[in-house]
């Protein structure tokens, strides 16, 4: 049974012959700009495992880039989507009301850790759409034109979210970009200046937010500050809670809304249903949450959650869309929340995170190329360097490492502003045996690439 299997390569090379032929077909018909760095053509998926068209079995530590927290083809989601499909696929929510939208919205409003108690929810299709709608909602509520984002941020590939995203490799040749998006410094503690204490460095990062008011936009023109609780593409860098508190204070002083981009961090990835629960526990909850990825276990869906006051200040017609809150997606989303609770996946996230982090820390002690290990729950980044003294980024090593892991049945993905971080996004339904097998391949791959 695939769900319980361990990594197994049965072809002489990866990709095998069938996969190689299909990858060649892809080159001929799909734009190169979409990119694909993996020799894997999926035939079946179950739990944390993928079987390719040649019969090779891979342990998936990418999870659709954070989409599959409940795993591939969870049987309960399959049944929920099947049942909904027999009633109706779609009814545009601007036209007809359907219960799935309301039920999922009510469930998310009940658990989302935003600042206000009375909440409303809207649905869209992707993380970029959620972020863009969160910004529109903030602008509509505050009647202000500008936003502040951070270094290292990734928010999407629409025109606005490309502008919000820090790494401009995602936006080559796409300008001119929208006005009114200004950038402050996100705390990257591993790479803070050597002469600074951690406190001094955090003060500098907070000052960079206030500097936006002096150099770019007056505070009363800023609608929102958008921040990931733990940066994804930026390198799996957690936002220090003292920094979040300071940003929350700046927002409160100036009538600015704080948006938590929980596209990648949501739905159990960090050991909480939402990572901003850590913020709320410390008294600095966001005003708006944008979330997507694992919300519906692989069916396209995203959500924006905010207070009733904020949501109802948005002009009519500004938000909404054809597929937002699609009936099949909402059915999957409702079941995801049940699975998370009934299969205790928040607890499992912390268990997996503790075991994986301990193993990665041991590799850090063992190997000169492992510079830093960081994260929350089962969302962990390992940063690779040429050596610990200089901390010089080592993207060349990481590229080789990704391919070495794939050859032995483990799928991992890079991240980081220098392309030198490996992210851990394994499905939370992964078995202990699969985790141990993956960690062994990971460790062996570091040793092989060092040679």
UniProtKB/TrEMBL annotation:
Sorted UniProt keywords: Aminotransferase, Pyridoxal phosphate, Transferase
Keyword Transferase: yes
PROSITE patterns associated with the record: AA_TRANSFER_CLASS_3
Cofactor(s), names only, from the UniProt record: pyridoxal 5'-phosphate
InterPro entries referenced in this protein's UniProt entry, alphabetically: Aminotrans_3, Aminotrans_3_PPA_site, Class-III_PLP-dep_AT, PyrdxlP-dep_Trfase, PyrdxlP-dep_Trfase_major, PyrdxlP-dep_Trfase_small
Reactions listed under catalytic activity: 4-aminobutanoate + 2-oxoglutarate = succinate semialdehyde + L-glutamate; (S)-3-amino-2-methylpropanoate + 2-oxoglutarate = 2-methyl-3-oxopropanoate + L-glutamate
A Pfam cross-reference name: Aminotran_3
EC number(s) given by UniProt: 2.6.1.19, 2.6.1.22
UniProt KW Zinc-finger keyword: no
Example of a GO MF term: 4-aminobutyrate:2-oxoglutarate transaminase activity
Pathway: Amino-acid degradation; 4-aminobutanoate degradation
Enzyme class (EC, first level): transferase
PANTHER family in UniProt: AMINOTRANSFERASE CLASS III (PTHR11986), LEUCINE_METHIONINE RACEMASE (PTHR11986:SF58)
Assigned protein family: Belongs to the class-III pyridoxal-phosphate-dependent aminotransferase family.
Protein name as catalogued: (S)-3-amino-2-methylpropionate transaminase
Protein's organism: Hespellia stercorisuis DSM 15480
């Amino acid at each position: 049974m695939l769900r319980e299997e361990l990594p197994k390569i049965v072809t002489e090379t990866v990709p095998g012959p069938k996969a190689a032929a299909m990858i060649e077909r892809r080159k001929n018909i799909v734009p190169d700009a979409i990119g694909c760095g993996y020799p894997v053509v999926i035939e079946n998926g179950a739990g944390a495992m993928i079987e390719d068209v040649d019969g090779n079995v891979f342990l998936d530590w990418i999870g659709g880039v954070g989409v599959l927290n409940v795993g591939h083809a969870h049987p309960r989601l399959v049944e929920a989507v099947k049942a909904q499909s027999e009633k109706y696929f779609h009814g545009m929510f601007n036209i007809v009301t359907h219960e799935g939208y309301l039920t999922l919205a009510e469930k998310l409003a009940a658990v989302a850790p935003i600042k206000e108690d009375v909440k409303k929810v809207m649905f869209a299709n992707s993380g970029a759409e959620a972020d863009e709608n969160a910004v529109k909602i903030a602008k509509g509520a505050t009647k202000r034109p500008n936003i502040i984002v951070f270094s290292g941020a990734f928010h999407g590939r629409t025109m606005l979210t490309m502008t919000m995203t820090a790494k401009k490799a995602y936006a080559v040749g796409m300008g001119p970009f929208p006005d009114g998006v200004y950038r402050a410094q996100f705390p990257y503690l591993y790479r803070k200046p050597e002469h600074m204490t951690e406190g001094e460095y955090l003060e500098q990062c907070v000052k960079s937010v206030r500097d936006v008011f002096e150099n770019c936009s007056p505070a009363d023109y800023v609608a929102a500050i958008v921040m990931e609780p733990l940066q994804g593409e930026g390198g799996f860098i957690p936002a220090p809670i003292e920094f979040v508190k300071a940003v929350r204070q700046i927002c409160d002083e100036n009538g600015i809304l704080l948006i938590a981009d929980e596209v990648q961090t949501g739905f159990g990835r960090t050991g909480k249903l939402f990572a901003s629960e850590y913020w709320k526990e410390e008294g600095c909850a966001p005003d708006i949450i944008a979330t997507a990825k694992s919300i519906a276990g692989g069916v396209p869906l995203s959500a924006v959650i905010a207070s009733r006051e904020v949501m109802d200040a948005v002009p009519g017609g500004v938000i909404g869309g054809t597929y937002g809150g699609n009936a099949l997606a909402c059915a999957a989303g409702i079941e995801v929340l049940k699975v998370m609770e009934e299969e205790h996946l928040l607890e499992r996230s912390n268990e997996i995170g503790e075991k994986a982090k301990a193993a990665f820390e041991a590799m850090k002690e063992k190997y000169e190329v492992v510079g830093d290990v960081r994260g929350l729950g089962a969302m962990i980044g390992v940063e690779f360097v040429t050596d610990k003294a200089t901390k010089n980024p080592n993207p060349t090593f990481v590229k080789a490492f990704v391919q070495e892991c794939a050859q032995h049945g483990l799928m991992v993905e890079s991240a980081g502003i220098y392309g030198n971080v490996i992210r851990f996004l394994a499905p939370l339904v992964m078995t202990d045996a699969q985790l141990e097998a993956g960690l062994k391949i990971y460790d062996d791959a570091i040793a092989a690439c060092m040679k």
